């Protein structure tokens, strides 16, 4: 059954898409109203298509259009490069702006008061300087005692009579006299007074002496 | 002549010459939509150039998933809708079909442009723009995209972020308005022709 409303909805699409529909064409032939609708829509869209090219300006218009566009593009490019440069300094700028931003007078006054109160509180709670123990590190030169074993060679007459040998009285006296003469006098007793060890140790070993001599 | 892909890659590297070459290829199509959408030449130029500026700024995001014109058309639709929201149009009361072809001495010397038929077409175009101006911007844009760009209702609905039914209704209302306006004009076609001849 013919439905004018349905046909009118379909015919618009048909015209817009430029398709042909034999079934719809048959229906248009049977309904004058639908036919008139089809002709009207078709004429309207053909007219808009015809004047479509009229909307495009003449060729002489386009060089100026593109020159103006190029000019705007150049500005955009410059601005974009500037923004990229500024973006690299953005964190620093943010910090500076934060530090330099204006502060309301009441807020500033409150901050100053709080700072003063804090300073006073700090001063009152601080301990006296004398009570504090201060550790001072002072370098002290300590002489290093280098112990050195010093021996002194004492030559002894190997033929000096032993104190333990049994001698006669006269011999003993004679030997004692001789021994006393050989004995070093108290002044000659070797002492270490005034002895200064040499830097280099000189060791002399004399062989050929007594077998017991070390 | 370099193809679009090469030009786009050069333009992505901030080559303005390459981008201007792209603009020269597609500027007329964008301007056609803008001139139907805006009703006067200056607004149409500003809007179409804004499309190109947006395209230039967004070109880094072009991934070659679609043709350049498909991508550009999406930017165009968004620019048109945003201008609608920002109250862009300055001289809404004026229709400027004849403005599109300034009748200076240079233009008049081109006999084809100054012919009565051409002037008649200009006046018809003015009627078309006047009829479209009585629609909402969304309805107007839906009609332009359907009729001049050949987009499907689904594509338009997706691009304009609305339902397919809304788009169909908008197109239908546009056709109805145009039909009423142009039928009135056709009744006075003889008067228009005589007016064009006098012009």
Q: What's the helix and strand layout?
A:
The complex is a heterodimer of chains A (214) and B (199).
Chain A: H1 4-17, H2 22-30, H3 32-50, H4 62-88, H5 90-100, H6 105-125, H7 169-182
Helix pairs in contact in A: 1-3, 2-3
Chain B: H1 4-12, H2 16-38, H3 41-58, H4 68-85, H5 105-109, H6 116-133, H7 137-147, H8 153-160, H9 164-187, H10 189-198
Fold and architecture overview:
The complex is a heterodimer of chains A (214) and B (199). Chain A is mainly α and 214 residues long. In chain A, 54% of the residues lie in helices and 0% in strands. Chain A starts with a helix and ends in a 32-residue tail after the last helix. The mean pLDDT of chain A is 77. Chain B is mainly α and 199 residues long. Chain B is globular, with a radius of gyration of 18 Å. Chain B starts with a helix and ends with a helix. At the A-B interface, α3 and α4 of A face α2, α3, α6 and α9 of B.
Summarize the structure.
The complex is a heterodimer of chains A (214) and B (199). Chain A is built from 7 helices and no strands. Chain A is mainly α and 214 residues long.
């Amino acid at each position: 059954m013919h439905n004018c409303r349905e046909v009118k909805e379909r015919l618009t699409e048909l015209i817009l898409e430029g398709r042909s529909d034999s079934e719809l064409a048959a229906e248009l032939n049977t309904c004058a109203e639908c036919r008139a609708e089809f002709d009207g829509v078709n004429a309207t869209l053909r007219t808009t298509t015809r004047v479509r090219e009229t909307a495009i300006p003449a060729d002489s218009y386009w060089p100026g259009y593109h020159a103006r566009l190029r000019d705007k593009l150049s500005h955009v490019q410059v601005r974009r490069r500037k923004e990229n440069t500024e973006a690299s300094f953005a964190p620093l700028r943010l910090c500076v702006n934060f530090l330099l931003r204006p502060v309301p007078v009441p807020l500033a006054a409150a901050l100053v008061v709080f700072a003063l109160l804090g300073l006073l509180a700090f001063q009152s709670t601080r301990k006296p300087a004398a009570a504090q123990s201060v550790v001072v590190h002072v370098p002290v030169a300590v002489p290093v005692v280098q112990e050195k074993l010093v021996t002194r060679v004492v030559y002894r007459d190997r033929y000096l009579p032993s104190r333990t040998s049994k001698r006669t009285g006269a011999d003993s006296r004679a030997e004692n006299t001789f021994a006393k003469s050989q004995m070093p006098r108290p002044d000659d007793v070797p002492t270490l007074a005034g002895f200064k060890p040499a830097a280099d140790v000189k060791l002399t070993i004399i062989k050929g002496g007594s077998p017991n001599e070390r | 002549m370099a193809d679009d892909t090469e030009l786009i890659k050069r333009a992505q590297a901030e080559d303005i010459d390459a981008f201007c070459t792209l603009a020269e290829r597609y500027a007329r199509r964008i301007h056609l939509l803008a001139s139907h959408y805006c009703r006067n030449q200056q607004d149409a130029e500003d809007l179409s150039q804004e499309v190109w500026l947006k395209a230039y700024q967004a070109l880094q995001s072009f991934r070659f998933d679609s043709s350049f014109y498909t991508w550009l058309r999406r930017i165009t639709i968004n620019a048109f809708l945003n201008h609608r929201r920002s109250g862009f149009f300055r001289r809404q009361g004026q229709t400027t079909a004849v403005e599109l072809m300034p009748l200076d001495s240079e233009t008049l010397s081109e006999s084809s442009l100054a012919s009565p038929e051409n002037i008649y077409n200009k006046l018809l175009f003015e009627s078309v723009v006047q009829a479209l101006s009585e629609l909402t911007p969304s309805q107007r844009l839906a009609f332009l995209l359907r009729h001049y760009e050949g987009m499907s209702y689904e594509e338009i609905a997706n691009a304009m972020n609305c339902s397919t039914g809304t788009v169909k209704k908008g197109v239908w209302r546009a056709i109805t308005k145009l039909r009423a306006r142009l039928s009135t004009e056709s009744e006075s076609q003889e008067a228009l022709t005589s007016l064009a001849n006098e012009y």
